[in-house]
Amino acid sequence: DPDSGDNGLLLYSLVNNQMNEFDINENTGQIFTVSVAGKATTFYLEVQAADQGAGRLTARTTVNVTVDSSSINNIVVVVLNQKINVVERHIAEVKRVLEDKLAWNVYIIDAYSNDFERKARSSTDVTYMKMTAFDEAIQEVPAEDVKRKFMEQKSNTELELERIFSMPVTAAIEEPPADSVTPELIATIVLGVLLACTLIAFLAYLVLTVKRKRKYENLIQNQAEIVKGVDNLCAADKNGSLKCIGKLENTNN
């Protein structure tokens, strides 16, 4: 705006309450992400610039932001000892500090804490930030390089963050947390274990039954051989039991 004074002072804002995924620095117009995790799509952001003169003139434009999920391997998680709601209020300043210390363009993909924290957003003093970095050639910087550079600048980064949050700040790198196991997967695992146990028990029963049958048949055979040639003749019936037919009387004709 070529005007001077209040007529040349512009304030920027996002229209239609789009601040769940994005926010904007009202003084510079810089747009940054709040939370776009798992949302590989294109967002259409309507941005308004308004001067502060008596007539308050405004202008609007649409900014298209395409979120690509192909960069998952180069995401780095930074952990701050700050409440999630406090970090969200200063996300643009945190981004500026990271860019200054890493000397790369930094994009904060998501700021979050645990599931309980999402409901009570000021209960735990731990916030996780997923970020990725790009060099001057707009090429993604490998995650290992980002981690290495961050550790080199860790002390300087924490000092700058202390000025933003007005309190001691610790910042650390953490591996992205594993996705929580879904109830469906848990049910499948439990069912598989139960089926395996049932199959093992059934096979054990079959083996034990066969062994008992063979042992019993061997016992019957041994008993039959013992009584062979004895006056009291015995034989096994169809059920495997010994039946004695009594002593035969000698008759003289």
From TrEMBL:
PROSITE patterns: CADHERIN_2 (PS50268). It comes from the Eukaryota. Gene3D superfamilies: Cadherins. The keyword Membrane applies. The chain crosses the membrane at residues 185-208. Keywords: Calcium, Membrane, Repeat, Transmembrane, Transmembrane helix. It is found in: Membrane. The keyword Ribosomal protein does not apply. Residues 1-77 form the Cadherin domain. GO terms for molecular function: beta-catenin binding; cadherin binding; calcium ion binding. Its main location: membrane. Pfam families: Cadherin. CDD domains: Cadherin_repeat. InterPro entries: Cadherin, Cadherin-like_dom, Cadherin-like_sf. One of its GO terms (biological process) is cell migration. GO terms for cellular component: catenin complex. This is FAT4 protein. It comes from Galbula dea.
